[in-house]
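S.,

Sequence below, as promised.
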Amino acid sequence: MALPALARTRPHYGGVLHVEITGDPWRGEDGLARSLAFDGLTTLDANGMLQPALAASWQSDGNDHRWDLRLRPGVHFHDGSPLTATAVVMSLNLACMGNCPWKAVRAAGTLSLIFTSDSPLPNLPALLAGNAFLIALTRNADGQTPAQPIGTGPFQVASTAGNVLTLAANENCWQGRPFADQIVVTSHRSIHDQWLDLGVGRADVVEVPAEQLRQAQQQRLTVVSSPPVRLLALAVSDSGTLANPMLRAAIAQAVDRSATYNVIFQKQGEITASLLPQSLTGYAFLFPATRDLNKANELRGGLNPLPLMLKADGNGAIELTAQRLALNLREAGFNVQIAGNAQRADLVLMDLPIAGSDPTGVLASLLLNAGQPAAVSARNPEALFRAEHDFLELHTIVPLLNLPRAYAVGGRLHNFALHADGTPDLASASVEEAP
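The prediction came back faster than expected:
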């Protein structure tokens, strides 16, 4: 049922690979089209190890306050424009819009980048492997914004029509040509319709949400599943009403992880009160994950805070989790309302990537994605535990569950595997055309 990859066969070039998804292929850090069209400066291999990508090498000095990255020579964007340090700087500045983990980045010649930071940034190469920092061309040769996304990745945009995006193989990709000639991505497709299309051969890859893994098994779908690579967590504001640390601690004690795990996610993944999974650190069990409603009421101390707004963006399971969390907190004396599309939120249910094999780098990336300071300098397990413990004591992030990613695949697809973050590696997959 849960396979690390489909059986390897000798791949061949050609064919059209059909993928269906529920969301937008360009939105979100794990947007499928982003990982196909764009590359990062660094990347994670299948084992979660950090590897060079558009940056061929890097080194730091000044106690990690300054990093020098050297770009890979001879790389071109899809439109033929050369990859330069200036183009990378423009892409990175647009990606984080002034809220970057570094203080400044500048070009030093054609192929060198200099990153500087007021505080040590020992995990910069790991941070740059995140999908938020994939490199896109922001200005073409005429100085204009490209009409469509342009990167250096294995596929480039061929056409867009409604909810159907067609990507064509990049014949001159610096990593080598991908096997499929085209990938057709149909977006905003319900899981029910995705599975129907897979069954009749209209789709080759479809999504399997964690909460529906058991159902996929009952329907005898061929599923490729990752280890837990996502952290479902509750972000808690430390301003306004919740500037009171006792109230934040009460919220952390009031959440019922077991009910969410057993009922909503059908016992898929793992219950956790740790930011990093047990498999990565070996100490996650030291963070208690049981609910203590009496302790929550004690910490609240009879205070009746103003109504709290809880925001959740995601699929049905995420919305159900938000509703259950609201119920948990009401039982602890908090007046919680689901925020919907409201701009202001005191509580936000977040789905955070936790891919990688280096715990310190994973923690830094996780905190960055959660909007927290990302400088983590722990060099041994004891220091890492202390850094994570001290952060969790702030109760601005309450970990809930570690969840896998999973996809169901059709019979004509070969050499399908998942990246370290659980997203599909479609550049390495090949399709068998009908005779």
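The chain has twelve helices and 21 strands.

Coffee later?
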